[in-house]
Amino acid sequence: MQIPDPEWSRELTAVRDSEARKAVQKFWDHWLKLPRPPGQIAPHLRAFLDAPEPALQPRVALLDIVPPDKIIVRLHSSARENSLGQAITGTNVLDICLAEDRDRLWKAAHEVVTRPCGWMTESVVTGASGVAARYLAINLPLMHDGGTLVMANYSVALENGETAGERGSVAGVGPGQWVDLGAGTPKF
Questions:
Q1: What are phi and psi of 162, to 5 degrees?
Q2: Which of 57, 79, 121, 130 is 20 to 30 A from 160 via CA?
Q3: What pLDDT score does 9 carry?
Q4: d(CA 90, CA 22)
Q5: Nearest to 142 by CA among 112, 111, 163
Q6: Contacts with 169 (C-beta within 8 Å, 6 or more apart), sequence order
Q7: Which has more pLDDT, 127 or 39?
Q8: Is residue 186, in this structure, part of any structural domain at all?
Q9: What's residue 7's pLDDT?
């Protein structure tokens, strides 16, 4: 099953055919193949952790969605830490993103894990070197025991840019595209 072409990428034809898009599709395919508990849309975190895809793992982050306003990094893979230039496991993502993006990011992450649905995004991340890079990402829900809401994020660089923004920060997240997993998508 193909992930949908994001509406915002139609103007960026390079995204549609890029290596980044192909890598995101591989992650999507991997997520789709994972076993699910009976009657559930999303696989369990255990299934995800028990069946790692070695080629994909360096670009994975696992995030705990903690109401009312935290997105805590549970796991931030090595390639992503190298890109950002710092270890952020345990960090609230909302503390390192632009203030104007925080409310939308919280609502979107909460929708991914509670509806559940997927969310494709494009973001700009400024690493410790001060160089910004554009990333294509897909965010998908994972079930977990004990009421913890977990989201898997797979992110691949589209291009490196200019030196810009606060080092080690998320300098902006585009509107994104919802992916219907069978429970519909939000309307915000």
A1: -90, 165
A2: 57
A3: 47
A4: 30
A5: 112
A6: 96, 97, 98, 125, 126
A7: 39
A8: no
A9: 53
CB 62 within 8 A of CB 75: yes
Domains identified in the chain, total number:
1
| Choice between 47 and 12, residue whose per-residue pLDDT is larger | 47
Position 46 scores a pLDDT of 95
Q: Give the range among 27-31, 33-37, 145-149 with minimum mean pLDDT.
A: 145-149
Q: Is residue 188 part of a domain?
A: no
- Is the previous residue joined to 37 through a cis bond, with omega within 30 degrees of 0? no
How is residue 41 written in tokens? Answer: 């849309």
In Å, the largest CA–CA distance within the chain is 48
Task: Specify the pTM.
Answer: 0.86
Q: Is residue 145 part of a domain?
A: yes
**Within a domain: residue 80?**
yes
3-state secondary structure of 159: strand
> Collapsing DSSP states into helix, strand and coil, what is residue 15?
helix
What the block records as the tokens of 85 is 């230039």
Of 76, 162, 181, nearest to 120 by C-alpha is 181
pLDDT one-digit tens code per residue, 65-117: 999 999 999 999 888 887 777 888 999 999 988 888 899 999 999 999 999 99
